[in-house]
Structure prediction request, 629 residues.
Amino acid sequence: MKWLMFAWKNVMRNSRRSLTAMLITALGTAAVLGSGGFALFTYESLEEMTARDTGHVVVANARGFEGDEDVPLQHGLAGSPALAAKFAALPGVRAVAPRVQFSGLISNGDKSAVFVGSGVVPEIDFRLRGPQMNFISGQPPASNSPAPEVVIGNELARLMKAKVGSSLTLLATTTEGNLNAVDVLVSGIASVGVPEIDKRLVLADLASVQKLLLSDKVGTLSIYLKETADTEAIATRVREMQPELAVKTWRDLAVFYQAVRALYDRIFGILGVIMICIVLFAMSNTLGMAVVERTREIGTLRAIGTLPAEIVRNFVLEGMLIGGAGTVAGMLLAGVATVFLLFAGIEMPPPPGRSAGYPLLLSFSPPLYGAVTLVVIVLAACAAWLVSSRAANKPVTEALAHV
Amino acid sequence: MSAESCTVRLTGLRKNYRVGEASVEALKGVSLDVLSGEMVALTGPSGSGKSTLLNLCGLIDTPDAGSRELGGTVIDKLDEIALTRLRREKVGFIFQGFNLVPVMTVYDNVEYPLLLLGVAAAERRQLTLTALQQVGLEDYALRLPDALSGGQRQRVAIARALVKSPALVIADEPTANLDSTTARQIVDLLHELAHERNASVVVATHDERMSSHCDRVLHLIDGELQ
Prediction:
């Protein structure tokens, strides 16, 4: 405690210089925590978005993920209701959504366009997609409607000049390789925030799609979990239960998430290294000047019996105090920024290829705060050790003669 | 003179300094014994080797030749760490410029050598206050050195040297720049330290007031004792 008190007194010996170093450390810490919090928020958002889109665990026929089907549902899953019931009974599973991917032409009688569609169970799917699907008008299709209903993308609705209640025709290749058509009513117009997808999006009731494709198979079973953290455990369990099927997690299917994460890891990693260098230089400069100014004092302390290691320890304590105080201030700054952004409602511009922005928020992560604190304090200690060890090992007479 | 009664025994000490290309011989085979409880004055003109001899005596410098003993222990083969530990236990220093740590209070400055020795808190407090009483500064314990006069600062330095009851005290010009009254107090304190605490005191001085009170006065000229 005494040594800590001496270290604090020495830190405050040149308070302006120490405060400058603390401020630089605080800003560096806040910058790392802010950018790290932003990256974490982005990762969490993308995780949620991807998991809501694909499901946490996706089960298909052994060749279902290869994408080399000659006709729709060639590698589809048969007996999906029984499988879905089996998976739904697993602990931690929230719901199981059967899906069929299909494509073809959509027509309003005057004009046709290519669509990429999904056959879904509306009661399950639209509940699970949550805010990722933004309904501009109308509502999800009804399963038991006498006329098949669809939700189409807002861009496709514009192309087809369609509104809620409009009648359109879907034309697709059946599982037998023939063309089949079905008249559908537009029950809703929605956007997923990606114009290229909204231009082709058709979501239809699963039974209607199976009828169009002349099959009772489904393409995939999407398993939604209560906790994303359980993904790997449930995937393993499903693999054990049905070893003949292919099982992928949302992470395996999240190409965009992986790309963004790789990019952000590098950007924020480099930013972190730059901040670390700034903190290291600020600390080295402050403590280096203190060491030069106190060389004679170091000589005195050495003469009366202080070991070089004890001199270094005192400077290391000073460095850790400056680093620690700077880190606390930096954490407060980052915390204030996190809370401010929570209420400020600031929007980020839409990322490339998307039509909607997203809120600028920072995640609060205790492990991140802990790790940054540890790194800054260790850096400060290293800087202090580097700049003081030479002076501490200087011959006593030389140190005493220092002017 | 037996080794047991000697605190310091210096034999044939030589020390050279390199000044540019030239080599200057600061000490030319100096031998000196200082007894326990003896106060020895080193006098001589500037550049005569007083400070060099004082540094070698106080174990903060190493000779080029010769041998040293402190309390019967030959110290020539000790490494820097061992020498530091020996200084910590047995040597007290009083500098001309006081050399107090400005951010530490008077109390903290005096207590510091005891902290190094790992003395328990209660004993440390008692020894520190006793040392401050001995130099008459117990009322100044919580002041910073900058708030004291030159004489008071030197008394703090003396308290710092005597607090651990060292076997040897090295004092470099302790009365320089002090007025007569204060210088007299410092001389008395060092005298008391030597005779009542049985410490060997080696003082480098130009000051007549100081050397006249020493048990022995050694005159150093051109690196040789006269």
Q: What stands out?
A: Chain B touches chain A through 27 residues (CB under 8 Å). The first helix of chain B runs from residue 50 to 57. Chain B has a mean pLDDT of 89. Chain B has one domain: 37-62+79-225.
